[in-house]
Write a structure and sequence with these properties.
This is Transposase. It comes from Paraburkholderia phytofirmans OLGA172. This protein is α+β, with helices and mostly antiparallel strands. 25% of the residues lie in helices and 46% in strands. Strands 1, 2, 3, 4 and 5 form a five-stranded antiparallel sheet that branches. The longest helix is centred in the C-terminal third of the chain and has 18 residues.
Length: 72
């Protein structure tokens, strides 16, 4: 999980390891969550699949920033 403060909210980028076949390298599903004062504001579904944990986390953070920009 990656946390970023943005516009008075906490934006979280999540990377969920997806291991469909034990012989293939895992990929990461990306999602994002927005909280404020320890309360859930909004959460995404799966945003896509990425080869690295960092890419997935960044996709989640990007989604959270975009959501806040469009709802603020």
């Amino acid at each position: 999980m990656e946390l970023e403060s943005y516009r008075g909210y906490n934006a979280w980028g999540h990377a969920i390891l997806q291991q469909e076949d034990i012989l293939q390298p895992g990929r990461y599903a990306a999602s994002g969550t927005i909280t404020q004062n320890n309360k859930l504001v909004e959460a995404s579904g799966v945003l896509g699949y990425f080869d690295t944990e960092e890419e997935a986390q960044q996709a989640g953070l990007s989604w959270a920033r975009a959501w806040l920009d469009s709802h603020g």
